[in-house]
Specification:
Elements (H helix, E strand, L loop, with lengths): L5 H5 L29 H5 L1 E7 L5 E7 L7 E5 L4 E6 L3 E6 L4 E6 L4 E6 L5 E5 L18 H10 L7 E5 L5 H10 L2 E6 L2 H14 L5 E5 L12 E4 L3 H14 L5 E5 L10 E8 L5 E8 L1
Parallel strand pairs: 1-7, 9-10, 9-12, 10-11, 12-13
Antiparallel strand pairs: 1-4, 2-3, 2-5, 5-6, 7-8, 13-15, 14-15
Helix pairs in contact: 3-4
The structure holds S-adenosylmethionine.
Length: 289
């Protein structure tokens, strides 16, 4: 069953309105030139990226906010990433497959086209602006009561090595180390999250038990794991499935927040609904290989 969770809701956008600054300006260079100083406009330019993580080419129109007449129609191929140097908000229009949608894009933010519920195509915040990495999910933390229950269900002990795929601020790995004496590895594509995880591990006094790696988790060696935790978008769990199947040893445990692993219904050992501190329901799935 598909449902809209915090993760999907949080992947929605921020609306704002400003005007686009041209991405370059032509100007005469002064005589024998050191590198030309950047103009104030250029200094304000940020790279907004749009990535297509669906299997379909998508046609869209993009223009500086409020300037529809300056709109450009483009097509983005499956897997492609497009970059816009802008100091201000852009607007993007496309058809979701059911209706026309218009969104505003914040300068400097990464977005991705992906499937929402019912195979509708939508645009979400968070693709890391990287052409070489798969976008598994935006950063949304698992609430601590849910982390605690995930680790209980997975029966973590000091003999375990837990890998968190897309570790965010490291909370799952750090809790497993602090509470159960487990070793842990957190992997995240976002360098800032890795740095935050390292600071959090030091503050919790578990920095010798844990390691954080800044890389695309789909390219990681996770064969040392006895437990893997996932809080990723549903299609990202599907993407991770063959990697888990190829690398995990028998009896390893896989514990997922909110989204099951498609195709692993028969392996499902336990499913639970867990309430967070605000009384909201979260779903935890445990699999044993
Ligand atoms: C929903 S958050 C989950 C964070 C943490 N596991 C938790 O449950 O609190 C997903 C994380 O996956 C990371 N991520 C997205 N794509 C990734 C990739 N290809 N490789 C590694 N991490 C990725 C994001 O940066 C984000 O921190």
């Amino acid at each position: 069953m598909k449902r809209t969770s915090d993760l999907i809701r949080a992947a929605a956008f921020v609306l704002a309105v400003i005007a686009l600054v041209p991405s370059s300006c032509s100007r005469r260079e002064p005589e024998p030139s050191p590198a030309p100083a950047e103009t104030a406009d250029e200094l304000r330019l940020k790279e907004t990226t749009v990535r297509n993580v669906t299997d379909n080419p998508i046609t869209y129109k993009i223009y500086p906010a409020g300037k529809l007449e300056a709109g450009e129609i483009r097509e983005i191929a499956p897997g492609a990433i497009e970059r816009f140097r802008t100091a201000s908000t852009l607007e993007i229009e496309f058809n979701t497959g059911r209706k026309d949608a218009v969104y505003s894009l914040d300068p400097g933010s990464p977005y991705s086209f992906r499937y929402d519920e019912g195979e509708v195509i939508d645009l979400f915040l968070g693709s890391h602006g990287r052409a070489d990495a798969v976008d598994l999910a935006p950063w949304v933390p698992t609430p601590q009561p849910v982390v605690d229950r995930m680790l209980e269900l997975a029966a973590v002990s000091d003999k375990d090595v837990l890998f968190d795929i897309g570790c965010g601020d490291g909370r799952i790995v750090i809790t497993a180390a602090r509470r159960y004496g487990a070793r842990g590895v957190g992997i995240d594509i976002d360098k800032a999250m890795i740095e935050e995880s390292e600071r959090n591990a030091a503050a919790a006094g578990v920095e010798r038990q844990v390691k954080f790696i800044n890389m695309d988790a789909t390219k990681a060696d996770i064969s040392e794991a006895t437990i893997v935790s996932l809080y990723l978008l549903p299609e990202s769990n599907a993407l991770m499935r063959p990697i888990l199947e190829a690398q995990l040893r028998p009896k390893s445990r896989v514990v997922c927040h909110n989204y099951a692993i498609p195709g692993w219904e028969a392996k499902q050992a336990q499913t639970e609904t867990v309430k967070d501190e605000n009384g909201e329901d979260h779903y935890v799935y445990l699999y044993i290989r």
